[in-house]
């Protein structure tokens, strides 16, 4: 009897165990994981290696930082959720980014095209005094080369859309020594580089000015400038800024003459050396009374205006003195005439008696 009860209890426990053991040993269901796969290429469609891909969920609790392999691929297993995905590479920018991407039904594929940042280079070319339009400017390295020309009127050049890196810049123009230097173009940055060219032969450059009665300096446009020297005679006119220039001169002594209607002429003699620039300016005196200049006069240390005033005063004194003298002479003559008349009347009276 007791044995029968014990057997029944054991059997019952075995049955309970058959149901409980599977329930206890069954693990809890894990959250589903998916992959985010990033593919990165350049504008030519070639894969880019070592591009930094950042994956972060919108709550900011999970962030992954990956690098693409030689195939331009980077992938990361992530829990289901919502993510932001970006790509970054020095000197480039991505064509897009991904925001609030839901990854809860399968893998997500992010495609990026990296576009190279480009720099710009701008500058001016002159001979140290005036600009040089038409000069040739070359920008080059071992793989690419660009060429442009300086523009009117400031001698400006510009290169745009240049990949970052080091370049050689060469500037040349007829009658000048070439100038070359190295520049580093930074992606996304505007760079500036100016050049000064030295002449192969000698040059004479200058400005023709005048001065108003108020003392203001003005530049004379269209003034005639001639140059004579060793076997050479040249003629030019000043531009709108009063500037003139003679180029490609042999070494020697030259005479420069300047003239313009309504102004006194100017002249100077200079010595020109090879590969040198002679700067020679002129200030012409206006012949109009409204433009009398405060230059040296012809009386002592007086300027021109005061010299003329002194002459006018002296002339006035001479005229007044002459007038007084004439009046005195006229008065004396009348007195003498009156005296003669009185004496004649006396003689006539005596004769009548």
UniProtKB/TrEMBL annotation:
Q: Does the keyword Methyltransferase apply?
A: no
**Keywords, alphabetical:** Carboxypeptidase, Hydrolase, Membrane, Protease, Transmembrane, Transmembrane helix
Provide the GO MF annotations for this entry.
carboxypeptidase activity
Which residue spans traverse the membrane?
Answer: 308-327
Family annotation (InterPro entries): CarboxyPept-like_regulatory (IPR008969)
> Mind telling me which Pfam families this protein's record contains?
CarboxypepD_reg
Q: Does the keyword rRNA processing apply?
A: no
What Gene3D superfamilies does the annotation carry?
Answer: Carboxypeptidase-like, regulatory domain
Q: What is this protein called?
A: Carboxypeptidase regulatory-like domain-containing protein
